[in-house]
Amino acid sequence: MVPLLHAQQRQAEVLTLKDAVNYALQNKAEAQKAKLDIENSEYQIQEVRARALPNISANGSLTYNPILQLNALPGDFFGAPGTTVLAPLGQKWNSVAGVNLTQTIFDQSVFTGLKAAKSTREFYQVNAQLTEEQVIERVANNYYQVYVQRQNLVLIDSTYQNTLKVRNIIKGQFDNGLARKIDLDRMNVNLRNIETQRQQLINAVALQENALKFYMGMPIETPITLPETEFEVRPVATEDTPDVTIRTEYQLLEKQEKLYFYNKKATQAGFYPTLSLTAGYNYIGQGPELPWFAKPSNGVYWSDFSTLGLNLNIPIFSGFGTRAKVRQADIELKRIEQDKKDTKLSLDLAYQNAKTQIENSLITINTQRENVALAKEVLDNTQNNYQQGLASLTDLLDAENSNIEAQNNYTSALLDFKLAEIQLIKAKGELKTLTN
């Protein structure tokens, strides 16, 4: 967290674009959640890996048989040939404790799942990068919009002061019988209109600053101020269309395509046989009373036994269900291929549009800069002529309005340039440079 932006501070600090972006990457929920997704993917890999490792479990049981089952046995066993004897089998009490092991030897879905889990981690890593770029873009856009609103407020404050001076001059003339009441009334109306515009701009600035703080993940009550040096118009290098395949948006689709590929492989694993090993070792106690801590003298006997086994499962026919799932996976792969083509075209379009907007904005900025200087010169001359009685009040009000309009057009052109600059940086895959 940037120390100068600590939530407890109430003194407005200078907030550069770099500060705003880095603060957002450390505090905005989207960026933090993307990092948690990466961390969670590690546990997903461990989960899949566990299917390939031995599974060991311990078990124990205690059984009491109040009525033993009688089994019909030949009397030969009991010295009574030719008869049938109903004899109970087993003991009233049985207790078993043991350890069992299961080990997968061959299961294609396990091996494919492990590769898919690793690809999932890569997907979340790219997605986190895309999320950071989206956070940077939103913060930068709102950062420059705050600047324009503040510039408009500075302009309206300056206009208000100039209009107030002229109104005071006319009032003095009116008090001395040198000006008409209607002229004084028109200036008062104009002054009140400017006051209304100023209040609207104050509200607009507050709303835009709150939006910026929200996109940064900053407490809304934190006071901020922006340096004007952040908004210098610098030459922007435009070049041939960049390789969009290195863009994060495109890379994310490629990772998603890889996941779909492994999903298809995992489905195809349903055609393969599976082989696993099982082993168990158990200790059993039987007798007419509770076996625990009992001895043979009590009629309780303990013995051990173990098992080893191989389990082979060969799929023969599944009603074409597996085949249908594989074909669905093929469709997903074809869909993502179309998404890649469309995304590539969209990214090329975004670059060309940003490049065109940059060029047009530079032309507009140069024109409006000259227009601002000219409008200011006209206003100064008109004010001087009005004081000397060589210009009407209408001429003066028109010159003031033209000056305000020229200033507004210039700041709007500057905003268009900065927003287009962000889009150009984004189109070149260089948004992260705003953090440096």
Automatic annotation (TrEMBL):
Annotated InterPro entries: OMP_efflux, TolC-like
Coiled-coil parts of chain: 184-211, 326-385
Superkingdom of the source species: Bacteria
Protein name stated in the entry: TolC family protein
Subcellular locations according to the entry: Cell outer membrane
Short name of any one Pfam family annotated for the protein: OEP
Organism field: Flavobacterium rhizosphaerae
Keywords: Cell outer membrane, Coiled coil, Membrane, Transmembrane, Transmembrane beta strand, Transport
The family this protein is said to belong to: Belongs to the outer membrane factor (OMF) (TC 1.B.17) family.
